[in-house]
Amino acid sequence: MGTRVLVVDDDPTVSDVVRRYLEHAGFTVALVGDGLAALEEYARQRPDLMILDLMLPGVDGLEVCRRLRATPGSAPIIMLTALGEEVDRIVGLQLGADDYVTKPFSPRELVLRAQSVLRRAQPPVQDQPIQDGNLHIDPVRRVAVLDGAELALTVREFDLLYFLMSRPGVALKRAELLEAVWGWTFGDQSTVTVHVRRLREKIEKDPADPQRIQTVWGVGYRYGS
């Protein structure tokens, strides 16, 4: 069985096109058409990746994302958004989506995004654990622990945190982080800002006065002083 992808979209035409392209790329694909079915199917088969439309009947895509991200170790999520849904896209990233693709989209691009997200979810065995006081991150096990409790981090949040922690005191531009963590040489840099905000909520004593992930005004961010 190949890498399992759960596609959640209530448009049968879109779902069928996405399924065919993903299967051609070697993925095993399951399709569902609403949010409740997505949660049930996810619990049943534990897919490696979910491709999730925002606009769903019943439980919408944002709520599906929120529920999955409530527990550690949930699969990466690529969110499908309509062209005019920028606010919902930002909210989706805040809730823990790992990537997004705007409709109408190229199925080939979606396959490449899926491969990129899954590749980044694999453990980089050459990297070493990092300890910063009560915060410990292990890139091989892909586990981050704060005060003895495992943090519920998305794939991108984990990669961003490890990238920052492995370069303490270095000011990193948003464009550099976008390329290193997301693999994008261009794109919306607010994606980085949203993920930094989410990380601060999870690792800082006071997210409004961050001591770990600090803003370097006019540049980007650095970890520590």
Largest sheet: 5 strands, parallel
Rg is 17 Å
First and last CA, distance: 47 Å
Q: Indicate the CATH architecture of the largest domain.
A: 3-Layer(aba) Sandwich
Strand order of the largest sheet: 2-1-3-4-5
The overall strand count is: 12
CATH topology of the largest domain: Rossmann fold
Q: Helicity, in percent?
A: 40-55%
CATH class of the largest domain: Alpha Beta
- Give average pLDDT, whole number: 88
Which band does the percent of strand residues land in?
15-25%
Number of domains: 2
Q: What is the element string, with H for helices and E for strands?
A: EHEHEHEHEHEEEEHEHHEE
Q: What overall form do the CA principal axes indicate?
A: globular
CATH superfamily of the largest domain: Response regulator
Structural class given helices, strands, pairing? alpha/beta
Low-confidence stretches: none
Number of helices: 8
GO biological process, one term: regulation of DNA-templated transcription
Pfam family, one: Trans_reg_C
Domain OmpR/PhoB-type: 127-225
Modified residues (4-aspartylphosphate): 53
Describe the structure.
- The protein is of the alpha/beta class and 225 residues long.
- It folds into 2 domains: 4-121, 3-Layer(aba) Sandwich (Rossmann fold), CATH 3.40.50; 130-223, Winged helix-like DNA-binding domain superfamily/Winged helix DNA-binding domain (Arc Repressor Mutant, subunit A), CATH 1.10.10.
- 40% of the residues lie in helices and 22% in strands.
- The chain has helices at residues 12-24, 35-45, 61-68, 86-95, 107-121, 155-165, 174-182, 190-203, and strands at 4-8, 28-32, 49-53, 77-82, 99-103, 130-132, 135-138, 143-146, 149-150, 172-173, 213-216, 220-223.
- The strands form 3 sheets. A 5-stranded parallel sheet has the order 2-1-3-4-5, sandwiched between helices. A 4-stranded antiparallel sheet has the order 6-7-8-9, with helices on one face. A 3-stranded antiparallel sheet has the order 10-12-11.
- Helix 4 (86-95) packs parallel to helix 8 (190-203).
